[in-house]
Amino acid sequence: MKFIPDEAKGLPPPEIVNRNSVGLGGMGWLTALLQNALKLRPALKSGLHRQVLYATVGWLFGYHVTKVENYTYAKLDRDMNEYVRRHPDDFVPKEKKTFAEIVEPFHPVR
Amino acid sequence: MTFNRLLCKAVQVNRVVSRSAFTSAKHDYVNPNWFRVGMAFGSSAVLWGMLFWQHSEDVREYKLRNGLE
C-alpha cells in the first residue's frame, strides 16, 4: 500500500529528531523494559541490546510516520486553499472595527 | 503408537496419545548469548545508518525538486 506517494518527496523532510520518533522510540524502549519486568529480570540493567534495538525500530517507524503526517496535512491544506480560491464569495473578509469605534466615550467618576 | 506400547505398564499411567515437539530449558543468566547480543547491536547500527542515509536522500530529493542549490 502506497503510504508516501511520489509528490510527498517535494515536501521538506522531517528532522532526524522529531516528535513522533522520540515518542515511538521511547515506547519501544518502554516495551523492552516491560518485557524485562514481566520476565522478572532487572528492568533497566538487563537486555541492553534489546532496549537499543526496540528503541531504534520505534525511532525509524516514527520518522516514516512523520513523513506520512506531513504529507497528509500538506494535502489537506492544499485542497482547502484551492477550495477557498475557487469560492471567493463564501470567504468575504469581514469588515473590522477598531475598539475606538465600538466603545462609548469614557467619563471617569472619581 | 506401536503395539508394544499397549503391553507396557506405563500406558496405564500416561494415557496421552500424541507427543509434543516442544522442549524447555532453564534460562541461563550467567552466560549471555553473545551471537544474539551481537546481532541485536549490529542490526541497530545498520538501522541507524539506514535512517541517516534515508534522511540525506530525502534532503537531496527535496532540494532537487524545489530547485535549491
TrEMBL record, chain A:
It comes from the Eukaryota. InterPro entries: NDUC2. Its main location: mitochondrion. It is found in: Mitochondrion inner membrane. GO terms for biological process: mitochondrial electron transport, NADH to ubiquinone. Keywords: Electron transport, Membrane, Mitochondrion, Mitochondrion inner membrane, Respiratory chain, Transmembrane, Transmembrane helix, Transport. The keyword Nucleotide-binding does not apply. The keyword Protein biosynthesis does not apply. It is a single-pass membrane protein. One of its GO terms (cellular component) is mitochondrial inner membrane. Belongs to the complex I NDUFC2 subunit family. PANTHER family: NADH DEHYDROGENASE [UBIQUINONE] 1 SUBUNIT C2-RELATED, NADH-UBIQUINONE OXIDOREDUCTASE SUBUNIT B14.5B. Accessory subunit of the mitochondrial membrane respiratory chain NADH dehydrogenase (Complex I), that is believed not to be involved in catalysis. Complex I functions in the transfer of electrons from NADH to the respiratory chain. The immediate electron acceptor for the enzyme is believed to be ubiquinone. This is NADH dehydrogenase [ubiquinone] 1 subunit C2.
TrEMBL record, chain B:
Signal peptide: none annotated. Its main location: mitochondrion. InterPro entries: NDUFC1. The chain crosses the membrane at residues 34-53. One of its GO terms (cellular component) is mitochondrial inner membrane. The keyword Mitochondrion applies. PANTHER family: NADH DEHYDROGENASE [UBIQUINONE] 1 SUBUNIT C1, MITOCHONDRIAL, NADH-UBIQUINONE OXIDOREDUCTASE KFYI SUBUNIT. Belongs to the complex I NDUFC1 subunit family. Complex I is composed of 45 different subunits. This is NADH dehydrogenase [ubiquinone] 1 subunit C1, mitochondrial. It comes from Stegastes partitus (bicolor damselfish). The lineage of its organism: Eukaryota, Metazoa, Chordata, Craniata, Vertebrata. The gene is ndufc1.
